Amino acid sequence: MTTQNPGPKSTAAHRAAMAGARPMIEIRQVQKHYGDYHALRGIDLTIRSGEFFSLLGPSGCGKTTLLRTIAGFEDISSGVVLIDGQDMQDVPANRRPTNMVFQSYAIFPHLTVAENVGFGLRRDPRSRAEKAAAVEQALEMVGLKGYSSRASHALSGGQRQRVALARALILKPKVLLLDEPLSALDRKMREQMQVELIKLQRQVGITFVLVTHDQEEALVMSDRIAVMFEGQIAQLDGPEALYARPTSRRVANFIGVMNFLPARVLGETADAVQIEAPGLGRVDIPLANVSQADPGDDGPSIGFRPEAVSLVAPGAQGANRVAEGVIDEVVYYGDMTYYDVRLDGSAGFDGQARPVRIAMRNVFGREVQDVGTRANVSWSPGSLVLFR
Amino acid sequence: MKGGGLRAYALIYLLFLYAPILLLPIFAFNSGTIIAFPLRGFTTEWFAQMWGNASLRRALTNSLTIAVSSSILATCLGVFAARASTRFAFPGKGPIMGLIMLPLVLPEIIVSISLLVVLLSLGVQLSILTVILGHTLICMPYATVILSTAFNSLDRSLEEAAYDLGETRISAFRLVILPLVMPGIISSLLMSFTISLDEFIIAFFLAGNEPTLPTYIFSQLRFPKQIPMIMALGTVLVLLSIALLTIAEYFRRRGIAKTGAKDTGGFL
Question: Name one GO cellular component term (chain A) (predicted).
Answer without folding.
Answer: ATP-binding cassette (ABC) transporter complex
